[in-house]
Automatic annotation (TrEMBL):
Organism of this sequence: Flavobacterium franklandianum
Xref: SUPFAM superfamilies: Outer membrane efflux proteins (OEP) (SSF56954)
Protein name in UniProt: TolC family protein
InterPro entries assigned: OMP_efflux (IPR003423), TolC-like (IPR051906)
Signal peptide: 1-22
Lineage: Bacteria, Pseudomonadati, Bacteroidota, Flavobacteriia, Flavobacteriales
PANTHER family per the UniProt record, alphabetical: OUTER MEMBRANE PROTEIN TOLC
């Protein structure tokens, strides 16, 4: 049989086997959907946000009245004696005394120096902070899933490249054995081909191990059984249209870390507003309806009762507190200043990270083009080398060099795509623009 036809038949058989045994393909969209539904960090951040939302009420801010119902039933049995002014002594053993007091009371702070309004605004800002934290958690998780997923794509591409080199090395061994059988090659050529084939098999086993471990890592991130088997897509698609100025503009608006610092500044300002409210008077309205009844076995009054409405108000004003008010206001102003510094620091850090990541992104895009050209050249060189080896015009060392050059070129091209994808992910993460 013609060797070229045999080689093509082996490749066709190999790819048919791969196709028949293919697992279900997990797309990046499905991986992100599973992660967002199952991930524990996202669930915790969602619950924290739910707590913040629950706290945003006028009652929690102190704007609503408090209504309290009370019931007091007191009883006693005592040996009692009383001595009056005229010397008369009255005594009674096991004297029973009973009192019953119940009713409802209302307490309503109608003015507290506008502190309650500042408190409500602060609760709303804390809700926004929780939303920013949830967004940050989701973006980090999307970024992590993307990175691990496309690392797995790279591992899968390298696995396919090593599968190809096994086929080539097997063909080389077959040709060497045939040449030896007809006396056109030495035993050394056969042994070298066998050693190289075994080396390729060892490399393939290591790559399979790495590939399986990355699958387990992705399943862990998706919070599902690590034994779940799947395949990923065969290509890495890189967004090569990113613009630094647009990314910086997006980051200023929606980067969750910068957003959190801005919210912290607003919270500090509202805290100062509440502290300043201590300089104003506080006005409370009080009211209630009570019932009282008492019985006594000894004394001037054996039974008494009362019921009715009571109402009034209470006003208070902090006149002097040892300069604590001034001290608290100064501390609150310093905290506001710290918040401003934190915003400036985060903004500068964000722009620096974006600039650095964008330069890496541009370099990786150029490397993709260069490595793609190298792979094409290496593939052509290998094809020519196989033909020359078949007719015996080159040495086994030259054949092996061309084979390794092709495999290394494929691996470098795959790695260049992966590194460019990581740069894209980093830029979109910083810009707060990780969508799925």
């Amino acid at each position: 049989m013609n060797t070229k036809i045999l080689f093509r038949s082996v490749l066709l058989f190999f790819f048919c086997i791969v196709k028949m045994n293919a697992q279900e393909v997990l797309t990046i969209e499905n991986a992100l959907k599973i992660a967002l539904e199952n991930n524990f960090e996202i669930k915790l951040a969602s619950n924290n946000l739910a707590i913040n939302k629950t706290n945003v009420t006028v009652g929690n801010a102190g704007m609503l009245p408090k209504l309290t119902a009370t019931l007091v039933d007191a009883n006693s049995i005592q040996n009692s004696s009383q001595t009056r002014q005229d010397g008369t002594i009255t005594a009674l053993d096991n004297a029973k005394n009973n009192s019953l007091n119940y009713g409802v009371g209302l307490n309503w702070t109608v003015f507290d120096g506008f502190k309650m309004f500042a408190k409500l605004d602060q609760l709303k800002e804390l809700q926004k902070f929780g939303e920013a934290q949830l967004k940050h958690t989701i973006i980090l998780k999307i970024s992590t899933v993307n990175a691990v997923y496309f690392d797995l794509v790279q591992q899968q591409q390298q696995l396919a490249a090593l599968d190809t080199t096994i086929v080539i090395s097997t063909q080389r061994l077959t040709l060497a054995q045939n040449r030896f059988n007809i006396g056109k090659a030495s035993k050394l050529e056969v042994l070298n081909a066998q050693v190289d084939l075994n080396t390729d098999k060892v490399t393939l086993l290591r790559q399979k191990e790495s590939y399986a471990n990355r699958k387990i890592a992705l399943n862990q991130i998706l919070a599902r059984d690590p034994k779940v088997d799947f395949k990923v897509v065969d290509e890495v698609t890189v967004d090569d249209k990113l613009v630094l100025a647009e990314l910086m503009a997006l980051a200023e608006k929606q980067n969750p870390q910068l957003e959190s610092e801005i919210i912290n500044k607003r919270v500090s300002e509202l805290q100062l507003k509440q502290i300043k409210g201590e300089r104003y008077p506080t006005l409370n309205l009080t009211s209630g309806y009570n019932f009282f009844e008492s019985q006594s076995s000894l004394g001037f009054t054996s039974e008494s009762s009362a019921r009715g409405l009571n109402y009034g108000f209470r006003a208070s004003l902090n006149v002097f507190d040892g300069f604590a008010q001034n001290r608290n206001e100064k501390i609150a102003k310093i905290q506001i200043e710290n918040s401003k510094i934190a915003i400036e620091q985060q903004s500068l850090l964000l722009n620096s990270e974006l600039s650095t990541a964008f330069q890496t992104y541009l370099t990786n895009l150029e490397l993709i083009d260069l490595e793609q050209i190298n792979e094409t050249i290496a593939k052509q060189n290998l094809r020519i080398t196989v033909d020359k080896f078949r007719i015996g015009t080159i040495t086994t060392l030259e054949f092996r060099t061309a084979q390794l050059n092709y495999i290394n070129a494929k691996v470098r091209y795959s790695n260049a795509q992966f590194q460019a994808k990581l740069s894209e992910i980093a830029l979109k993460e910083l810009a707060g623009n990780m969508s799925f």
